[in-house]
# Entry
Amino acid sequence: MKNFTLLFVLFLASIQPAFSQTETCDCKTDLDFIVEKIKAMPSFKTQIKGPKATEFEITYTNLSNQMKQPILIEDCYKMLLQQMVLVNDVHASLSYIKTPINKEILNDTLKLNDFKASNAFKNHPKSEYNLNDLEAELSKKNEQELEGIYNYGDDLKIGIYQQKDSDTLVGVVLKSNLKQWEAGQIIVYASHTAELKYNLFYYNPSTRTPGFVKSISFENGRLWIYKKTTNTNNEELPIKDQSNWEFRQLTPDTQYLYFGNFSSFSKSNRKAFKDFYAKVKKELSATNVIVDLRSNAGGNSKLSDPFLKLLKKKNVYILTNCFTGSNGEQFTLKLKALKNVKHLGQTTRGIIAYGMNYGYNYNTPSGNFNITPTDMDFNEYLAYEGKGVTPEIALDFSKDWLEQTLAIIKNTSN
# Structure
């Protein structure tokens, strides 16, 4: 963790300063506020001891010394993130409240022109490279390299390259179909954390709001919302147009369960769970059961764990992808503790060891940021935090995952 923390501090330091802003804030007051919230988190109490506690205090002191004068808001955000990332807690987050651009501006030509004439637009961080030369060089990169050319849907073409004399990767807009972006502007920075995982400091494509997301996989030419232009394989994603609760017969001896999430926040989803559980309990009869948890971002264990008893005596084949997270990952590990279970697919998100029971979040004193601390402790899963749960069998991203799983079941039965 110490080496990762040092790398992350260097990563944030390598991001171009926010010269685009003129507004400042009292960053020290915000730092004190978020440190108070961090210290109340179970993850802090479990992890930050001994040398890590010393590192936490040294970082706090160093940051405090840099905050004796008002700090540009975006620079303050980056500094606050340096303190937060010392705790390995992917659920805990700090968001940037103000949005530089909104639909009203985008739909009004005069307001949009005013925005493009502002310092916020003109002085946004830009790549130092000639874009034609950069694109030509990046087009030579292979599929396994993170460097390359990516699409953000049909809206943006982005080139991601290694920054000089740094471990930081930079994503620059090569072509934009969005009015709020122009070629040459930087939209994302990536820092490697563990194995397939990266932390991303990014600018929201729609609002240009700075943000930070942790434990993102690079695999199958995909880095979060960005996909390599040369890779059209998307078989790791959930089957389109499914509901969050799917149960069907695939073959005479294999049934299929899909759980889109385990959220208990809405009354409708709680009812859907009860109806689904009753149906599965009544009709689950096959020897083999595929449990599809692709992109299941988690929820309440009260909606997942009742299925463990139903699956206990089955041959279970779990499917996960890099967006399977939180209780979706915990449920994966609980299933794997049963007999006759195989885990297939892709390594999960790695947002598993902590969580939010009450979902409280707090604006910092400046009003510029919002912190969402964690209050739930699943420390027994700490080894998977920021890394994810890796399947025993990796599936081919270019072929249908259900068909691959059925083939594995057939071979296992023979």
Observations:
- The chain has a mean pLDDT of 95.
- DSSP finds 14 helices and 21 strands in the chain.
- The longest strand covers residues 210-219.
- The radius of gyration is 23 Å.
